[in-house]
Amino acid sequence: MASRSERKQQTRTALLQGALAWVEEGNDFASISIREVAKRAGVVPTSFYRHFTDLDDLALGLVDELSIALRQLMREARHKTRQTDKMIYDSVSIFVDNALANQPMFRFMSQAMCGGSEIVRRAIRNELDYFARELEADIRAMGALSHLSPSTLTMTAQLIINTVAAITVEILDTARDNKSLQTALKKRTVKQIQLILVGSAHWRESSSAPTDELREEKMTTKSS
Amino acid sequence: MASRSERKQQTRTALLQGALAWVEEGNDFASISIREVAKRAGVVPTSFYRHFTDLDDLALGLVDELSIALRQLMREARHKTRQTDKMIYDSVSIFVDNALANQPMFRFMSQAMCGGSEIVRRAIRNELDYFARELEADIRAMGALSHLSPSTLTMTAQLIINTVAAITVEILDTARDNKSLQTALKKRTVKQIQLILVGSAHWRESSSAPTDELREEKMTTKSS
DNA sequence: TGTACATCAGTGAACGCGCGTTCACTGATGTAC
DNA sequence: TGTACATCAGTGAACGCGCGTTCACTGATGTAC
């Protein structure tokens, strides 16, 4: 028989899962209630208070689980990616597949990242910032894009994470049961990241250079 | 004295504004109630039903207003932007300044884009898709990036819109009353868009080219 | 222009319901001797 | 090992409150003659 603290931990997990079930059913985390969480966890409403002070507290518990999921995902990406030329596709695939396998958690992330209470939003933003810094460190460790200034590299990593976050929202929203749409969105994201990396590779640290590029394109077009 | 239909229109507007007030107060649209909307509109709860069938219906009314705001913004961007080399900065500035001047509406957009009911999410996604297509048409009309295939240009426009959407969420969330942080985020976004455009300018329509760019960077680094 | 009737936006009472939170409780698990 | 007591996760009744929605209503605006 499990010890008292083990049983308590089980109930805590059941409450967190209950909240995710609410999200999985198509509801917004922002409109959840303590009673609905307790109902899904198979526990009386008052039990909630043995584990969390309020719903924000529970949401922060979910962010902790999200954090673990993201770190596992990073580890998987670091080990499973193949040669350089497949690295982007593999990484995006691992991210998207994780998001699909762990849908309620990533739906919660999408919702609470843009809405909900400020403290939870900040906690999720912290996780994504950490993710971006890890990506930045990996790029640096690969010896790639070394001509970029630290701030430009940071900005590039943030741009890539924003792009991946956007695809997550879109896939969970529009392609839940549509395998071929999932593949199409994966491919689009890979292409977008490739485009960002091409931009980084050709980036020169000067504020006027980039718009020169655009003007040059325009001229070329007109003369042709 | 206003006619009956004019008065009705005024109440309708008051209800829409009441919903935005709820968002402005720091609450999530997903947790609003009909009674709270009516209270902020200075009207009895039952009046709500003279204008909307339910809260989704009201949300779609807000999306209509958002649509108008976005179209005005596009028009402003087309008329006010100066020479090519300032165009990106001017456009981002116009977008960010509009979002700050019209905060509750853009906060609603951020929230309902990722959470809330499916029908509202779809409506907002449609607006952003329209925005991306307009951007695409403008780039084409300028004669820029004409070497890109139609699908690559579409993807580029979507990437830019995603980036602008991300900055909107971040500015409304973290820089509401911090002018210097607003400026910093504006600059970062300008840089990100410039980077995307550099990438587009150097893009060649071949699936292996982009990762070659990355590998080339890596090699260069290792040999130096 | 004046009168008589129709329309309908907004009102206010009422309903049953789910909400958060309190409280005293129960009984299995844990601890001290 | 056995007993007596302490701890505490989960229970269930109870509370006052805001919710969505219904209904019959009122009285100003609109329309027909």
TrEMBL record, chains A, B:
<dbReference type="InterPro" id="IPR050692">
    <property type="entry name" value="HTH_transcr_repressor_FabR"/>
</dbReference>
<dbReference type="InterPro" id="IPR001647">
    <property type="entry name" value="HTH_TetR"/>
</dbReference>
<dbReference type="InterPro" id="IPR009057">
    <property type="entry name" value="Homeodomain-like_sf"/>
</dbReference>
<dbReference type="Pfam" id="PF21943">
    <property type="entry name" value="TetR_C_46"/>
</dbReference>
<protein>
    <submittedName>
        <fullName>Transcriptional regulator, TetR family</fullName>
    </submittedName>
</protein>
<keyword id="KW-0238">DNA-binding</keyword>
<dbReference type="Pfam" id="PF00440">
    <property type="entry name" value="TetR_N"/>
</dbReference>
<dbReference type="InterPro" id="IPR054129">
    <property type="entry name" value="DesT_TetR_C"/>
</dbReference>
<feature type="domain" description="HTH tetR-type">
    <location>
        <begin position="9"/>
        <end position="70"/>
    </location>
</feature>
<dbReference type="GO" id="GO:0003677">
    <property type="term" value="F:DNA binding"/>
</dbReference>
<feature type="DNA-binding region" description="H-T-H motif">
    <location>
        <begin position="33"/>
        <end position="52"/>
    </location>
</feature>
<keyword id="KW-0805">Transcription regulation</keyword>
<keyword id="KW-0804">Transcription</keyword>
